Amino acid sequence: MKTILISEGDPTSINYELLVSAFPLLLSLGKRHRIYLIRGPHNLTVPSLPILTKPSAAPGFYSLPWSDSKKSRNFTLGKPSVTSGRMAYDSLLAAMDWQTELGADLITLPLSKEWVGKAGVKGFRGHTETLAEYYKRPTFMMMSGEKLNVIPLTTHVPLKDVVKELKRFSWSELSKALARSQFLKNPKIAYLGLNPHAGEGGKIGDEESTILAGGVKVLRKAKFSVEGPLSADSAFLPGAKPYDLYLAGYHDQGLIPFKLLEGKKGVNITLGLNFTRLSPDHGTAFDIAGKGVADPTGLISCLERLNGDERKINS
C-alpha cells in the first residue's frame, strides 16, 4: 500500500475541477492506497471527500487540512489573489512536511509563481527548486510523456542567465539522479546544442564545446550512452533518430516541443529525490476555471504513473 499526497496548488485555478473529474479513479486507487489531498482553510471542496484531522491507517481518499485555523477564506474560481497565492505555497510546504513524516509520494497540482511572489514569498522559482531547497539535494525536472522524455538543464531562469547557470550545473549529480530513477533504464540520451545549428563548429557560439561537452564526458564516464550536440530545430522532427531522453539547454528549448508533441498526457517528474514527485505539465488555467471544461488527463497520468500503469523506459 502506497501513501500518496496531493498538494492543492492554487485553489482558484482548475485544480478542484480536475480532482472532481478524476474522483472515480481516486476512489478506485483509494481501495489499495492512502491518498491525501493537502488543503488549506477555504470554501472550495471536493464533494463526498472525508475530512481528517490526522492521517488514517486505512486505505482511502481523504482531505487532510494543513491548518487548524477556524477562519476559512472564500475564493472564487478564476480569481487568483495574494491570499490564494500564499495558501498555495503554504499547502506545498505542508505537503512536504507530511511527506517527510509519512514517507509518501507526492503529486503537486499547479500554482502560480506570479501570485506566490505577490504574496511575499521571496525567490520562489517553482516546485522543482523549492523541493531542492527543502530536501537539501539537487533536483532535476524531467518532462515525461508517452514517447518523449526531456530534461531542461536550466529551469526557471531568464534567458540571459542560461549560460551562467550551465557553467555551474552539476553533471555528476544529474548522473546519480539518472542512475537512481525508476523511470529510466539504460536510456539512450541526446543533448541539444545551445546555439542555432548546435553552434556550427563554433561559428555561432562555442558553448557546445566549452560547457556542454565537458558535462557530457561526466555522463559517458558513468557508462551512459550520449549523442550530440543535436541541432535543436530538427531534433524532434518526424523521421529524426529517436532517443529515450533529451537534454535541453534551457526551459523553452525542451518544453515547447515536448508540449506540442505530447499534449495533455505529459507529466513533470522530479529526479534526485528519494521518493516520487509528479505534476501535470500544464498550468493553473485561471481563464477557464469554473467553466467546466478543464481536462483531468494530466492528473490522471500522474496517478497512473504512481500506480505503475504507465510504461517505464527500457532500452
TrEMBL record:
Keywords assigned by UniProt, alphabetized: Metal-binding, NAD, Oxidoreductase
Enzyme class: oxidoreductase
InterPro entries attached to this UniProt entry: PdxA_fam (IPR005255)
SUPFAM superfamilies given in the database record: Isocitrate/Isopropylmalate dehydrogenase-like
EC id: 1.1.1.262
A GO term for molecular function: 4-hydroxythreonine-4-phosphate dehydrogenase activity
Stated name of the protein: 4-hydroxythreonine-4-phosphate dehydrogenase PdxA
Species of the source: Leptospira wolbachii serovar Codice str. CDC
The organism's taxonomic lineage, starting at the top: Bacteria, Pseudomonadati, Spirochaetota, Spirochaetia, Leptospirales
